[in-house]
Amino acid sequence: MYLLQREKIHERCKNICPNKDDLSIFMRPDFVLNDPATFNTVLPWSHFSVAGGKNSRDGASSRLLQEKLSHYLDVVEVSIARQISLRSEAFFHAMSSQHELQDRLRETAVAVATLRARTAVMDRVMCRGPLQALKDTVTRSNCTKLHGKLKLMAAVQQTQPTVQLLLSTSEFVGALELIATTKEVLQQELQGIHSFRHLGSQLCEMEKLIDKMIVADFTTYSRSDLNRSFEDDSQVLEKDRLQSLVFGLLRQRKLDFLDIYSEEMMQAAKGIVRQCVLRSVSQIEDIDTDTVVKLQDQMRLMKFSQWFELLQNVFEHFVLFLTRIKATLSVIRNVVLEVLDSCQRSRMADSSSAIADGNCGENEDEDEEDSGGSSLRPGEAELAYLTHEGLFISDALNEAERRSSTAAPSKTQTQTRAETSGSDSASGTTESSSSREQTTNTTSSLPTGGTEDKKPSDFLLVDGQKYAVVGTVLLLIRIFLEYCQCVNDIPSITTDMLTRLADLLKHFNSRSCQLVLGAGALQVVGLKTITTKNLALVSRCLQLVVHYIPIIRAHFETKLQPKQYSILRHFDHITKDYNDHIAEISAKLVAIMDGLFERVLSKYEVKAPMPSLCFRNVCKQMAKMHEAIHDLLPEEQTQMLFLRINTSFKMHLKRQLSRLGVINDGGPQHGLVVVDVAFYTENVQALRSLERLDLNMPEIWEQKR
Q1: For 151-175, what is the mean pLDDT?
Q2: CB atoms within 10 A of CB 194
Q3: Taking all residues of the chain, what is their mean pLDDT, rounded to a whole number?
Q4: Which has the closest alpha carbon to 182: 170, 190, 192, 194?
Q5: Which residue stretches does the UniProt record annotate as biased composition, category Low complexity (predicted)?
Q6: What is the number of other CB atoms lying within 10 angstroms of the CB of residue 517?
Q7: Chain-centre distance of CA 346, in angstroms?
């Protein structure tokens, strides 16, 4: 609309002011004095071209030019006046708008000045004080935090002198706790402090030094405790020092300190025997020590009564020696149990806090169920090993019975319950290493390791593999552990233990073969028949033993001299025997179905209705076989087994079709067989883990020549 209005005004002006281009050159749009033609037109200097000539003609020409220019000036002024008159309304409107705008600006300036004055008063009266108070509060808080940081820095700065002071008094646990706390403070509250950039590495070095000091101090303590005189009545030497050392060793997870104590114990035992022999030999007057120099030769000259007296003396000393060892180990056991109780209380507190915060969801419940409700934190499993395995097994049983809040069953009842629960299935997780074969079973006979007994799980989980085994295998694994522990304690009998263990493995394999493949269980146990489930269960038991044989071999290999490595060939032969046995069981499972196929398919006739009764029976038996072994064998073994069974089925079906003269010619009989085969394929592939099994059923047809 505005543009249309302006266009109308422009048209009106054009009508009022005619084109003056023919009257004046000054009104042309291309008027520029730079152009010579325009310049000569405006100023006709040709009238003054005569040099120095000032006559009446030139004067007249000048006057004429002046009048002409004056005329042009008048024309321009008139044109300007006319244009102003034409735009007078807009001009006066702009002038009035300008005055109105100036008035409004003056009013706005006054309002802004008033607002700024009021704002200044509000700032002075209402804002400056509170803002200053907030600023002072923040400053005070920052100063308090800075003071706290400075105090914390001062305390951290005193860490090293304090640690050295604690070490001077053998307070290893306190020193380690202080180092751990300081490292935590450095990582969280004092992170980035430039002056402490090297303190973390220094504390790590001090921790390593303390580790060595604890081990050395424990070695010294063990040597002093085991080699002290038997006249000393105290059973435990410096009990507080021993407890402090054990706490420190457990905190640093130096769980091999019992090996150190065992070595010192063996050395001390040898020293006791030697001292008793020297004392007895020196008291026998019949022996000339100048003639017979060697101690073993002197002992050969002893009479039976002297030998008996020597043995009695040795045993008396060993009774005292073992009593002291038992007292020392009791102190160590109590410390370990205290640490385990502390870990359990901490774990229960964490669980309670998680429940209070609403963080205990279904996934956590499932994890607890999967772990059997006994998930241990890192390090607790090793601590549990110290109390539930090896030297402390009997003490742990007694302690568990004493600490039970309810009436605990007797040891005999507990063992009976463990055997009963282990006869059907196995439970727990087994962890192994080359240095110490540790097997932890959740079917432990310890009372609940509550008033209700823990139900055994259906599988033994080993390295991520599920093994469904019988209770006998659990006992066998336990025996493996005891053999490995025995060669740890007495390395000199490694070859003898290896031979005995090889005999045990051979006996287990041969006895399993006799009872199952040889059907000996029918007479021994009274079974009515050997089922496919029995076969699969035995196969899985043998596979678990095969899994452990390389681990046991590696453990025994570390205890043998290189020249004795040839004896390890027993394990190779045993492994081959076990694998052959496993293969025979698989072949037996295939043979069972093979006999069924031969018996059923020999009566197969290609006639309606479809699917035929013969194929229905085959699929039913296949489903029964799958149901019996699927939960026992791994998925890949189940697939391989059914591939072999399917090959047997195709062979017998092909033979029967050839006998009946049925070929793949697209005829009626061929169509009926295709329906039966499709029914068979659908039923087999509907079984769990067999969905993608390639049955390759076209092989049932004779190749066309």
Answers
A1: 78
A2: 5
A3: 77
A4: 190
A5: 419-445
A6: 16
A7: 21
